[in-house]
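Figure 2 data, in text form.
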Amino acid sequence: MIDMAEFVERARVEGNFLVTGYNQYEKRILRNIEPSYDLGYVFGSYLSVGSVNIITYKRSKRGIVFWYIEKSNSSDKLSKLKNSVKKSFNLSLNVREQKKASTYQIACYSKPLATLLSQLGKKSGNKKLPECYMIKNNKEYNKGIIEAIEDFEGHIPDRRDVLKKRKLSLDVVDLYQKLKNY
């Protein structure tokens, strides 16, 4: 289980929710996150096409998680990602069409989520799933990771040397192959 309170500096607790922000910026984030298909899907999509940005603005830290996905055949992936983030964290995503590129920019404005996902790496070439999030005996969680990597990355080759020009890190390829064998 992941306790999101570890990733929050200021929040009040209301049941199983952490309430951050104030007034119109208030967000209710699920506090205790159980490993599930949806959590796996969020992790897998981040490992494939996600990035995180944590900035300081007026003496407070703010976090943004971005996913960039191609417009073609993206409606199913987009709705799966939105549902997974909502179910896992009780957070919403903002989708913006990139004018010059054929991609969507999906953003989640949440410092706790950005801090959590930054543990998986910030740049595409060096991302990996830390040991503390490796769960061998949870088939649904692992299925979520595998499906997200397949949805956002497409074909994953069996050999590591084929991947030299891809943005996916070798650690993520190894994770994918390991999870397929569980």
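Caption note: Residues 75-89 form the longest helix (15 residues).
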